[in-house]
Specification:
Blueprint lengths: L1 H10 L28 E4 L12 H9 L4 E2 L2 E4 L5 E3 L22 E5 L2 E5 L7 H4 L27 H15 L4 E2 L2 E2 L2 H6 L5 H10 L9 E3 L2 H9 L6 E5 L12 H4 L2 H7 L5 E4 L10 H7 L3 E7 L22 H11 L3 E4 L2 H9 L7
Parallel strand pairs: 1-2, 1-13, 2-7, 3-8, 9-10, 10-11, 11-12, 12-13
Antiparallel strand pairs: 3-4, 5-6
Helix pairs in contact: 2-4, 11-12
Amino acid sequence: MRRRSVLLAAGATAAGTSVSATTSVSATPAHAAAVAPGPVVIGHRGAAGWRPEHTAASYTFAVETGADWIEPDLVPTRDHHLVVRHENEISGTTDVARHPEFAGRRATKIVDGRTVTGWFTEDFTLAELKTLRAVERLPLVRNRNTVFDGRQPVLTFQEVVDLARLLSRRHGRTVAVFPETKHPSYFRSLGLPLEPVLAALVRRNRLGPRECVIQSFEPSSLLRLAEERLRVPLWQALGTSGGPYGHPLTYRDMMTPAGLRAIAGYAQWIGPDKSSLVPPPGLLADAHAAGLKVGAYTFRAENQYLPAELRRGTDPNAFGDAFAEYARHFTLGVDAVVTDFPDLAVIARDSRPRTKG
């Protein structure tokens, strides 16, 4: 099955970014999720294991190999457009350092209490960002992906919505978008709030609960979006240490039964790190008891990202037994998996033993 995935990756074609939107109003009740045959498979930044992340090629390959949802991280431009990048600092995901005309934009900033040096989306207009091209973020881990460096532009969130609808029509099923608001408190402090622009885009595109689920690590962002009454599900992402920026509770506090009940007051999903669900912790059962669905992140195939017992050989970048890790979490009862390799997740999901009805 590993060979099948490699062949699929080698044969996939990059999609263009000029796509037309269609209007689609769902009659599904608010907060219902996009339907999948079993746990939802979410393409993390597309199919980041096979293509540079957040590109049309990455999203297209994710859907071609079975992803139900595709995830764009959202950051703003200077002229307040939402673009999709892992971080607002873009030296590792674009070729900006090769553009001498932007050399003077290099800066050092404090983002959520952390000092960061590089080039930042909020210092560029959308037109300027469109002159850049995406590159592989982890070239030492995924050298195979560097063959695609310089071939794909930076996308807006609107372009991802358009692409998701194009792929939905092409494949005869609804592909949902799963945007994440990145550093929302930081951007509010700059006068570039993410939530009103995102809410306007959701309304303009008439995105319903089967087409969009919004996530954030910061409860303040989700609470603002809840006030917008968008009729799309919200997803509270949870880290493994510390707490959300500017929030009085730690992630550990938020994962207690009381914390989960509080989350259920504004969100329909939680998204913990996959390690938080490994027994004996009872997070999954507690979340379900609170009426929350659970989507675990981030599944990757390389040894360095797998539990020690599932690694194969000593090369940290070689593939280990990723299928066993998916099987473990599917057996636990997760409602979704966020993965850099949606093709592998779909194979694992489709290989589950079927219960007789």
